[in-house]
Design goal:
The chain has 134 residues and is mainly alpha-helical. 62% of the residues lie in helices and 0% in strands.
Length: 134
């Protein structure tokens, strides 16, 4: 749970750093970059431990996909509340597809795959080749 909470917190900082300046277009670009970097530092201080501590409980692939879902959820709330932009129907469909990716990423790994009746077992020794006699 701490991994997920750290990922959410890091995404709050990341979203503010990457998109918060869109409401302040009158601010010089170099200032926006500097402020964004200062906001992004705490994001890294949360993101790195989240991945370090979460790896082992989650695979690297699962951490990344989880990160993307959290990013989209945080961004959606930020875009609605701070930027005052409403998502459209196609954004909802795209989000549902990302949730589908999470479903597939977190499927349990099968220990053994089902075998076909006519297929030889993967661990079975190969049948010897018939030797040719002169």
């Amino acid at each position: 749970m701490s991994t997920i909470l750290l990922l959410i917190a890091s995404n709050l900082f990341m979203t503010a750093a990457w998109y918060g300046h869109l409401r302040y277009k009158h601010v010089e670009l170099w200032q926006v970059i500097l402020i964004s970097w200062l906001i992004a530092l705490p994001e890294y201080c949360l993101q790195v431990p989240a991945n370090r501590w979460g790896h082992g409980r989650f695979s690297a692939f699962q951490l990344k996909i989880l990160q993307e879902v959290i990013t989209l959820a945080v961004f959606t709330a930020f875009a609605i509340a701070f930027l005052r932009e409403a998502p459209r129907w196609n954004h909802a469909v795209a989000g549902a597809m990302v949730l589908g990716a999470v479903y597939f990423a977190f499927l349990p790994e099968r220990v053994t795959a089902p075998r076909l009746a006519h297929a030889p077992a993967a661990d079975a020794a190969p049948e010897p080749e018939p030797s040719e006699s002169p």
